[in-house]
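Hi W.,

Here's what went into the run:
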Amino acid sequence: MEHHSILRVVSKLLIPPMLVFALYVQFHGEYSPGGGFQAGVVFAAAFILYSLVHGIDALIKIVPPRALHVFSAVGALIFAGTGVVTMLLGEPFLGYYALAENPVHAQEWGIVIVEFGVGMTVASVMLSLFIAFASHNPRLDDKDW
Amino acid sequence: MMALIVSNLPALQVALPIIAAPFCLILGRGAWAWALATIVSFVTFAISLALFASVYDGSIISYHMGGWAPPIGIEYRVDIVNAFVLLIVSGVAALVLPYAYRSVADEIPADRQPIFYTAFLLCVAGLLGVTITGDAFNVFVFLEISSLSTYALVASGAWRNKRALTASYNYLIMGTVGATFFVIGIGMLYMITGTLNMADLAVRIADHGDSSTLHMGFVFILIGIGLKLAMFPLHLWLPNAYSFAPSAVTAFLAATATKVAVYVMLRFMFTVLGFDFEFQADTLKLVVFPLAVAAMFAASLVAIFQDDLKRMLAYSSIAQIGYILLGLAFLTHTGLLASIVHLFNHAVTKGALFMVAGCFVLSTGTSSISSLRGVGRDMPWTAAAFVAGGFSLIGLPLTVGFISKWYLVQAALELGWWPVALLIMASSLLAIIYVWRVVEAVYLQPAPEGITRKEAPLSMLVPAWILVGLSIWFGVSASLTTTAASRAADALIGQSQILWQE
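Here's what came out:
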């Protein structure tokens, strides 16, 4: 991979802004277009770009599939857990008003927490899918490019 | 705390399996995931029982998700109709999971089992969600949750037979077409009314009156759900999906998935579109009715010529769906009662039979009928369970199958359609033939030399026999199921202003 300097440099330039943009989409989701799903996809795309340049093994070294499974489960649990917490606080399932005194803040926090779970699950499921498909192909040698 | 739980029962019914599913994935060990899934399925069943008990008198529980009142928010609405279906789904899940331990250990590699149980719980949650929700679009979302996990569950039969992959892919394509048709239909209803809450839809459609958009919406929903419930010419995905899925999955799906789809059909036909809707009555009479009769005969005939036990039972399921749709198409109280009671009766019967098939698969390694020769001596309990379940499938007295057919025949005679009553009995004769083929192989043909097959383990026999026991218990004293079904039919008819024939 050492001699593909253009690919390396461009990906190095692109990946950090992609991650930051994903976080921007994530945390502005409640009052601008975006949200957990879109953010998760953008976040995963950064990793996929890394793997396109450095190979699938490098990606698996950073995020092992088992960790991805756990992350996708935890994301779903953040969503469902918010519902359980509001239920324990006396509101219905996912009734965000229980989360704060001020109803506007309560709704905002509720949606931010839930969307964070969505983003986490979407990003890790995207990566799991990518790894599942990419691992099936025979490894591409540097000479074959 | 208790009051908190009771007031949130409708949400917990669905949320509990959904929350448990990711935990299964995190646990990462097959046995732990199985233990968690089993405990959750028991609690889910207890919740269904509590819900059923509280709506048995005809009251309705309305739960507002997130505190947003309907029609804007998502409403979970439990009445006698869906409480009955919830009971079927969670009850079968609570029996299939203990059964699954040995069966899955045999059919699925250890490192994949946590994912299997995750998908299983998601499937349970999806089916429960479809049943409990009072929001038309939410039905679609949960239908997708259950369908997507079902595709994965069917495909997990690939370790036993690679053809599970094509079966699952086939099901994926057909199921997606069905779901798309369904959501287009909902889109048309939304176009007319601007609402997605079922109760609100019913009122607004009644105000709005007849229109061609409504006709199209109805047809799209009918065909979409028809694909999901394997209505006769749309059943092509079912035989392969059922025969190649792991045994525990087949037992669960055969007893629940198509039943839930039938429930959705009932709900949309009689609660949502339930005004004086001639187009719907005509469609039921002229399209669904002949198809139901055709299913009873065509699928039973095909079942007779199958060499694979699971495949034979799958075709028999298509025929039984025919009976359910037939009861629906009568458009009378008795017909509807027969349909609803058959939902339960067929779930119990077919669940038991597929569990027995799974026991045979565990011991003989295959589900082909010819390999079951003489197995009655080696596996007396499994074989006896098959015979008892087979009686119920045929509809012999003292089994639940008889109760269903009794009401179906009665519904036909009430309308004076005695040829239909004769057809129902004639199709039962076909059931005798295909059940007899297995009984003959199991008991009357000599066992191949030198092979002894071990009796299935207790963890599989007990759930199978519980279902067999239920099929006899509710065949002898059917008052509980028929009263519930009768009240459910009343509720569906009461909600609709369709011109019911007296």
